[in-house]
Amino acid sequence: MFVMGILFSLISTLLNIVLPLIIRNAIDMRKLIENKMGIQVLLTIGSLLIASTLITAMGNFLVSREGDRLIADVRTKVQTHLMHLPTSFFDNNLSGQLASRVINDASILKNFVSVTIPANISSMFMVIGTLFVLVTLDLKMTILICFCFPLVFLIMVPIGKIIERYSIKSQTELSNLTETTTESLRNIRPVKLNHAEKGVLARFYRYIQNLYHISVKFDEVFSITNPIQTLVSYSIILTLILYGGARVTNGTMTLGTLVSFLIYFFQLTNPINSLAVFYSDYKQAIGATQKINEIMSIPTEDDNGLVISGRQEQNPLILKNVYFAYGQHEVLRNVSLRFEQQKKIAIVGPSGAGKTTIINILTRLYPIDKGELLLGKTPAYKYKLSSWRKLFSIVTQENSILSGSIKDNLLFGLDTKPNNTEINHALNVANLSSDISLMPRGISTIVGEQGVKLSGGQRQRLQIARTYLKQTPVIILDEATSSLDSDSEKNILTSLERLSKDRTVISIAHRLSTIVHSDLIYFVDDHRILACGTHKELLAKLPEYKRFVNEQKL
User: Fold this and answer.
1) Domain that holds residue 404
2) pLDDT tens for residues 122-134?
3) Quick one: which of 163, 320, 544, 553 has the most CB atoms within 10 Å?
4) Residue 342 to residue 357: CA distance in whole angstroms
5) DSSP β-bridge partners for residue 216
């Protein structure tokens, strides 16, 4: 369709090249002043104009549609690629700037493909075709026009370079603005609670002012160059009229030829301008492409390997002599843990000891630097990453609620859609049914951004209901009750007790109520496992654990 659109544009250009010749012949043969012939000529000219308009419209539509398809494909590929990049990539890149790559840079490519390229192909065809016709009409006038048009290039080429320079700056500032806006709105409650509006707005205003100053620079350039360009164009027209008029007077050129030359000049102005700034548009598109390619060139997570069978799910998960560091910062040192199936295992220790990192490694969000992660006797890397992560469901202290409805959140991440009976059972397990029954729209209730319309306990129980529907063999509770009051915690613990039946439960917690009944507790401190045992065993044999319990008031 893109080629067809270009073809339509070329046909339209050909008609525009032919039209002045018809007008020339009509004037020279005086057909316009003869009634019958004049009407025929006018009808011919009108028909060509209408045909050219319709063909141009069709060509523009086909090319624009291909541009829209391209931007949809690019955005889909970039977003898909982003979703499969390692977690470490997102540790070092801002979400707003990544969004700018998907949205703003893709739009630049769309404009280049659907507007700039077709326009310049048509422009080249127009310039070459017109010059060929002009040479056949009058060589001297053609030479005069060829001497005049470099003046247009002298104006437009510097403009193009200025546009290129400021466009790059504009893209950078727009990316910064997108990041600032996204971050401030996503964290609007912490912003308000910390009275940080002034600081956030100051940062926002800075990027706005930068964009404003760039726009002013554009205005300065165009306010000077546009009048100069107009002056040059009228000067060329005046030169053509004076020279051509003298030629008409002395009989060396016909009036029709002069009129056709003037029409051709007007038709050539936009194509010449378009060609003059093409390089700048090209550089803009290259810049956007490079930024997108920087993302696309980063290797995605490897999802090759074996699929974990139901029987293999019953094997223990093992971390063996694991070392891990975030950059130069060591987090885990020679850590070994064993998670038997259908057991309740807790990981406790002071903040920064590496508890959450253990979970990140267990779920393969990060690769280990040294050591082994096993399922039974089989190394984790031999299994498909997607199959491995289906072993786990996680309930976190962090907000992992989508901005859609309660039902959207329940179905989030599920391979198969549960029926209403299964959904209602999950809500009962999570002690959420009574709350939802009081909502006018039930499970279709919109929860707001990050679940703001739900209480903290409701958000946690919604995660539990989602986890129940996933029916994974391993459940991870990452500080699942740390931010709740005692009543909410009691409801959550009841829900978790129902949820964890016949499953492996791995808990990271500070509260005694969450870990005291664990089959096994690992105590992590100073980036290593100091000891493991039941709560009573650790109290008896590990002073660090006893002190930690007392200090944390578990």
Assistant:
1) 312-552
2) 888 888 888 888 8
3) 163
4) 22
5) none
Does one domain contain both 282 and 337?
no
Mean pLDDT along residues 405-424: 86
φ/ψ (deg, to 5) at 223: -65, -25
Residue type, 132: F
Q: What six digits make up the tokens of 66?
A: 């291909």
Catalytic residue positions, numbered: 479
- Can you state the angle between helices 486-499 and 420-429, rounded to 10 degrees? 130
Does one domain contain both 359 and 400? yes
Residue 490 maps to which CATH number?
A: 3.40.50.300
Same domain, 197 and 122: yes
Q: Does a structural domain hold residue 495?
A: yes
Whole-angstrom Cα distance, residue 497 to residue 509? Answer: 15
Does residue 306 belong to any structural domain of this protein? no
Q: Which of 182, 218, 220, 209 is nearest to 104 (CA)?
A: 182
Q: 419: helix, coil or strand?
A: coil
Q: Domain check: are 87 and 208 in the same one?
A: yes
Whether 382 and 307 have beta carbons less than 8 Å apart is answered as no
CB 60 within 8 A of CB 1: no
Specify whether 136 is located in the same domain as 217: yes
Question: Exposed, middle or buried by CB within 10 Å (0-12, 13-18, 19+), for 453?
Answer: middle
Residue closest to 505 by CA, chosen among 473, 468, 540, 527: 473
Chain segment 355-388, per-residue pLDDT in tens: 889 999 999 999 999 999 999 999 999 999 989 9
Question: Does the model's pTM come out above 0.90?
Answer: no
Question: Any idea what the CATH number is for the domain that residue 88 is in?
Answer: 1.20.1560.10
- Between the CA of residue 442 and those of 223, 263, 401, 424, 437, what are the distances in Å? 59, 69, 17, 11, 6
Number of domains in the chain: 2
Do 47 and 148 lie in one domain? The reply is yes
- Name the DSSP class of 294: H
Contact 217, 241 (CB under 8 A): no
